[in-house]
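Subject: complex prediction, re-run

Hi both,

The earlier run crashed halfway through, so I resubmitted it with identical inputs.
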Amino acid sequence: MPDSATLEAVNIDQDAGNFSYPEDYQHDAGVGLSEATIDYISDVKGEADWIREFRKKALKIFEGKPMPTNWATKDLENIVFENIRYYLSKGQTPTRSWDEVPDDVKQTFERLGIPEKERKFLSGVEAQFDSEAAYSNVKEELSKEGVIFVNSTEGLREHPELFRKWFGKVIPTGDNKFSALNSAVFSGGSFIYVPPGVKVKHPLQAYFRINAENFGQFERTLIIVDEGAEVTYMEGCTAPKFETSTLHSAVVELVAMKDAKIQYITVQNWSANVFNLVTKRGMAHENAEIRWIDCNIGSRLTMKYPGVIMKGRKARGEVISIALANDGQHQDTGAKMIHAADETTSNIVAKSISVGKGRSTYRGQVHIPKHLKGCKNNTECDALLINSSSRTDTYPAITVRGNQHATQHEASVSQVSEDQIFYMKQRGLTEAAAMSLSVNGFVNDLVREFPMEYSVELKRLIDMEMEDSVG
Amino acid sequence: MSQSLKIENLHASVEGTEILKGLSLEIPKGEVHAIMGPNGSGKSTLSKVMAGHEDYEVTEGAVFMDGENLLDLEIDERSRAGFFLAFQYPHEIPGVSNANFLRAALQARLPKGEEIDAVAFYKDMYEKMDSLSMDRKFTGRSVNDGFSGGEKKRNEILQMMMLEPKYAVLDETDSGLDIDALKIVAEGVNRMRSPERGFLVITHYQRLLDYIVPDVVHVMSDGRIVKTGGKDLALELEAKGYDWITDELVATA
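This time it finished cleanly. Structure:
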């Protein structure tokens, strides 16, 4: 247990995410998706023609692609694209000061503890409310060093040459149906540029909040870290518990130039009505390092396989992932490691927990082509089952050609048995506390990789999920 | 309100088969009682039923702890009320350190909002580990994970010492222990003997009772207590074997 001072410092309310404010939007693209929706979004944003064309091309690709139900869950068919609202905003432009943020939006983020965290341990914050950012600020000393941290709308407007160079290059529009959808209707998300040699000490954080019902959030994030520079980016997500389904479909592209380091940390706590279908990939140039630390808690269905393309010699990629599938939830997560240069190294550690009827799926792809030398991959996936009706599947695909590489793969499935829970309860722990402790024990070695503030939050989220699961 | 652990006419079955068939005994606070009996007499069932294991169905009877019926409480409530079971086969909890587990168990006994004093906790735990000759590295190791049989049993006694129950049941704590470990464990139990605490020591062999000398010895057979006596009864059993009791039962029937 963290001490009370730590808990207070990070200000976590167990039900913090479950509230919403009445809708009052200046811009609403209406229900359904067509070229007119795209024109509406482009007009509101005052976008350049090439972006409008990019979007429309993406819409055609989206419409032409079937749902990937040949390999993924049929539950995807329950997403009714014509019932979703694709753009909602209050017409706000992100402010640099919390005082100027509209009251209900400000209250939302205050209840989630964002301004407080910013003061305590962050270098910069972007807070997105439905389609657009309401607040975005980066510490002055970082701006002076040339660090850019804005939302994607502003990034495209103010830094088109930088943005356009990498936009859609790591994840092409047609990568999958949902990357195409995002490319058609994207709004919000972060644009970050860190100039050569600048090491950003404290994390930059973005917070994505869905407030409206029947809504789709499609943020687009692009992070470019120039030669020898370093950054840690953290994102948090919540939504209220609505009866109807909500869609969250982001695209995140990372570019780490020579010798650069990017650490991207996600702690999502979606409510059980959210379809969370996200494409995340990074490109690591020579001797660069990209780490994805990904915690998936909540949502109805999450499909997410963060990836790293190791394009330069000695590049390193890592995915550390924790997925918790409670009753009625499906966490379909994994990692993608594409080795495209000599002496590249990748590491995947994935742990999943399935509770009740919750379902976890691990899908991994490791690709090492024949012409390369001295590549290494380590893959570990461990599943923990809590009670017999939960389900876990592992689909590791490790393609290694040639014999000058080292790969290692380990997988395990373990169970929290009734007798183990009995033992813990005999020592005075409630059932929920016993399960939490078991789950925390299972993910313990991974949680140590997190910044302290986030590991505390993650533990609290696990406690909360376990309490829910025993009713 | 009587200050005792009192089992009254306890009947319990597992999957429809009755294992406990009207067992009664009373352990007044401050006493150590032993239950001996042949394999299959229901000794371990008794300990699990008292702790509340869900595989067993209590069909009749009650277990009063200082007047309160334990059977009305949940498993964890029984523990927090002061009932402790040292397991014959302690479970492993991978990834959860011994120290964290003990801390969570103690924390569960505090009112909401109150926190354990970490410094005092570690001091207390280290002293108790020293008394059980447990290396301090055990605090960081996962509960019972990769422990030898003897280490697990010592760990049970450490948990008992930390939780300071009103009544403790030790289920075959001697099994799997060599003589040195047995002495250490017995010493731990003896140090906890007090007018404020009662013990029920379940064992198959008399050997443990050389070190934890009981006030009363019960003999269990076929789900009941068939004979009760002083500590000499254990020696008599050791010398004559369990057949002597069962034969005597047949003769008096």
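Residues 80 and 382 of chain A are 34 Å apart (CA to CA).

- K.
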